[in-house]
TrEMBL record:
This is Ribonuclease Z. Keywords: Endonuclease, Hydrolase, Metal-binding, Nuclease, tRNA processing, Zinc. It catalyses: Endonucleolytic cleavage of RNA, removing extra 3' nucleotides from tRNA precursor, generating 3' termini of tRNAs. A 3'-hydroxy group is left at the tRNA terminus and a 5'-phosphoryl group is left at the trailer molecule. GO terms for molecular function: 3'-tRNA processing endoribonuclease activity; zinc ion binding. It is an enzyme of class 3 (hydrolase). PANTHER family: ZINC PHOSPHODIESTERASE ELAC PROTEIN 1 (PTHR46018). It comes from the Archaea. HAMAP family: RNase_Z_BN. The active site is at 65 (proton acceptor). Its EC number is 3.1.26.11. The gene is rnz. Zn(2+) 2 binds at residues 65-66, 206, 262.
Amino acid sequence: MMKIIFLGTSASKPTSERNPSSVALQYNNGEFMLFDCGEGTQRQMIKKVSPMKISKIFITHLHADHIIGLVGLVQSMKLNGRTQLLEIFVPKDTIEYMKTLFSIPYFSADFDIHVIGVFEEKIDFDGYWIRPFPVSHGVPAIGYVFGVNDSRGKFNKKLCDELGIKGEMFALLEKNGKIEIGGREISIKEVTGKTKKGKKIVYTGDTEKIEVFPEEAYHCDVLIHESTFVSQEDKKETYHSTVKEACEVAKLLSAKKLVLTHISQRYETKEVADESKKYCENAIVAEDFLEITL
Ligand SMILES: [Zn+2]
Ligand SMILES: [Zn+2]
């Protein structure tokens, strides 16, 4: 099970309703990950996300409204006695810039922080994976596809009994994918139910509309797309997207659900929602503390 928690949904600066960008993801009711960490993120986390359970932070780009919350968050982790490694993923070529964020005077963490530069390579973790991809924002910037591995179905108990699979044989079957009983080889697929497809989330960070995505992004369960502007007139030549453009990307990717975020302070939520309804039935506008369970 996965839970997405929107901690900050505002573009550039906080408003009375919205904090700057950050999205938390809880994997399997345990470990948390953050996507971006704007100013004030740790306050938004109170009662929702434990800083001590954050294993990884995925940064899309180094504009201040996406990273300024990191220093305070790391400071709090230190005060709470954290010893566990923290991994921070950033667009490649920005590793040194990210490190300067932690070089302010009289500041240190008592635990290891690894800053890892990424661009387009898929990275596998225990049970899930991440696939960064380049976006277009005028500075080095990436989006991320987060995916959970497919999981196999449950053992068919009746069939296992009939074939004589018992006790430690199950562990062997899991480990090797097959087992031999009475001269017959039995594969794990024969005795388990249908494979369960893992869920996928795409998070664009800040970007103007792009049309090239990695294949992993298609048919995602949730597309979290920035939609800073409602009208093209407001957008002008900025490297951001309009609601209409975000809806077009959702169609391109055949996303099951579109969540619009990074909303300019000039708009009321209703204005953004009304605009999205013109182009996309499955779109919602994120509010701070919106939770989506997958
Ligand atoms: Zn931004
Ligand atoms: Zn930006």
